[in-house]
Amino acid sequence: MKVKEMQVKYRDDGNGQIEGYASTFIRQPDSYGDVVKQGAFAKTLAERWNGGKGIPFLWAHKMDDLKAFIGTAEAEEDEKGLHFVATFDDTEEAQKVRQLYKDGRLRKFSFAYEVKDEGSVTLEDGTKANELRELELFEISAVTVPANEDASVVDVKAAEPEVKSGARNSKKDADRISQAIALLKEVLGEIEDPEEDETEETDDAKEEPKANEDATSKELDVLNARKDALLSIIKNMEE
Hints:
The chain is α+β, with helices and mostly antiparallel strands. The chain is built from five helices and nine strands, in the order E-E-E-H-E-E-E-H-E-E-E-H-H-H. It has helices spanning 42-47, 92-103, 171-192, 203-206, 210-238, and strands at 2-7, 17-24, 34-36, 55-59, 69-77, 81-88, 108-122, 128-143, 153-157.
């Protein structure tokens, strides 16, 4: 059995999933001198994995360690490569791996396989490579070091609901968020720098009862609470 590693990219939402490519069909040899032919996974996905469902998602190919089973993947071939979506298990180990992808400390994938058909091929630039034409897929893994730098993460989805990071859905969304942040900062500025009362203080005003001071103190507490809430909202929107 052999393994190959692929680079990944990131996105986040509330479903505890990760999406990416475990293999790509680029005609450039990886660190093993291999290229993968489009269609190499078709048979194994159809026969071994029921159309691409239920593929083990592991940490670092540790098939003999139950704690290393961190999720389940579904996969299919497209024009780029072996595209998959893996759902993380609700375990400490699985959620730690998910967090590492979210933080950007993990950026790679790998897959374990057995070669069923291969052969020598000359690429367009004259480079000779070993072409993998049919592969038996055993699992997809989260790893640290890739063999093929081209494979990328499409999407990482977090376990926490309502928390998103990574690229926005569109420029329109980004513009709306920028406008909202600007408005919030404007309101925050008014709270921090209220207009001064230009009315001259009279002797009667100086002698107002302590109850008015208590009321003013309560108003300041409310303003500070609103200020903290706005700062928190702005921070979340800017992330």
